[in-house]
Amino acid sequence: MRAKVNQDINISDYSGVWVISEQNMGKLHNVTLELIGEGRKLADKINKELSVVVLGYKISEIVKLLEEYPVNNIICIDRPELENYNTDIYASCINSTIKDMKPEIVLFGATSIGRDLAPRVSAKVGTGLTADCTSLEIDEADGKLLQTRPAFGGNLMATIICPKNRPQMSTVRPGVMQKALKSSEKTAKVITPEIDSKILVSKVIFENLVVNDKPRVNLQDAKIIVSGGRGLKTPEGFKLIDELADVLGGVVGASRAAVDSGWIDHSHQVGQTGTTVRPDLYIACGISGAIQHLAGMSESKTIVAINSDPNAPIFKICDYGIVGDLYKIIPELIDLAKSNK
Ligand SMILES: Cc1cc2nc3c(=O)[nH]c(=O)nc-3n(C[C@H](O)[C@H](O)[C@H](O)COP(=O)(O)OP(=O)(O)OC[C@H]3O[C@@H](n4cnc5c(N)ncnc54)[C@H](O)[C@@H]3O)c2cc1C
Predict the structure, then answer these.
(1) Given CB 3.0 to 4.6 Å as the disulfide criterion, which of 51, 122, 152, 247 pairs with 73?
(2) How close is the Cα of 281 to the center of ligand 1, in Å?
(3) What is the DSSP secondary-structure string of 293-333?
(4) Nearest CA to ligand 1 atom 37
């Protein structure tokens, strides 16, 4: 969606950093804490306040939780119409609050909801949006937000600025930024902005919420990840990956090639179009190390690569490399791990 550029603004009227929080059925999404961590750093650099915006219905518990983090303001919009996520109403409420309070930076999580909501808000406000950022900095020279994201299929990193419009808006990939730590004192002010009831109507009618009860793999919080790629050659290869992950107490990841081959569900995919992870230990088995895969795992503390090709790019970034056939090496690792238990 292309935003209609707002020509009549005075940039100096805009101040402060906002994080649009995401909560679902009373549970705060991890990305909100990551955005608070990053937002705090940005706000401190420009010497401005950090506010977190929370929308929903009966959300006092979420507000209480947010009060424990280092934010200056909690902007709380608590209305029955916001009980279930609705793009129209959520975007209208955020748009109206941005127009009233004029933040200079607004951050969303690049989650399914954030990716749906942020473009609508940017179009309504009339400003730009940089999607899927992996790094945010403040330009020392002029205080502008430098928004970096992969471009051209991840082959280069582009840094984007929003020079003429405000707010500067980004979505940020979950799992990339460090989560904020709780602060020792609660100093946040709770603000409840006026919302015109005319904007609380939508063309979309909420019928029913269907909860996906399939167990989801939690790659983002995993301390150990064992990932398999096209080098496994068959879907059965994941049984071996599963066994190694199990014996190490880790979870199973995958490259996109393995997912696209239909060997494993997309929820296991690590990388630019999958999940970004930063475990203590990442074991890449039969994965070449394409830039789009590295974009999702290169922040892991220790990387071990098993690959039969000594020239595979993954060996350039790993801490420990094992050249050889994964079908010989993984069973040995499993035996070793079992004997050390
Ligand atoms: C826009 C875009 C987004 C993308 N997003 C992602 C993403 O999120 N995640 C992702 O992973 N990719 C992504 N890709 C795809 C990426 O470019 C690569 O194609 C993919 O990562 C390759 O997966 P692979 O390493 O499993 O397969 P390959 O590149 O085919 O590598 C297989 C490796 O297995 C090794 N091997 C073979 N047999 C054995 C054996 N017996 N023992 C040990 N090693 C063996 C080979 O030497 C080889 O290095 C994206 C691409 C694009 C264009």
Answers:
(1) 51
(2) 19
(3) HHHHHTT-SEEEEEES-TT-THHHH-SEEEES-HHHHHHHH
(4) 231
Cβ-contact 264, 236 below 8 angstroms: no
Q: What is the pLDDT of residues 76-127, one digit of tens each?
A: 999 999 999 999 999 999 999 999 999 999 999 999 899 999 999 999 999 9
Q: How many whole angstroms from 172 Cα to the centroid of ligand 1?
A: 24
The pLDDT of residue 1 is above 50: no
- Which residues approach ligand 1 with their CB closer than 6 A? 153-154, 229-231, 255-258, 269, 271-274, 286-288, 290, 292-293, 296, 306-309, 312, 325-327
Q: Which CATH number fits domain 11-200: 3.40.50.720, 3.40.190.10, 3.40.50.300, 3.40.50.620?
A: 3.40.50.620
- Nearest-CA residue for atom 51 of ligand 1: 292
Do 11-200 and 224-339 fold alike per CATH? yes
Q: Which amino acid is at 124?
A: K
Residues 150, 295 contacting (CB under 8 angstroms): yes
Report pLDDT digits (tens) over 258-308. 999 999 999 999 998 899 999 999 999 999 999 999 999 999 999 999 999
Indicate which residue's Cα is closest to atom 23 of ligand 1: 257
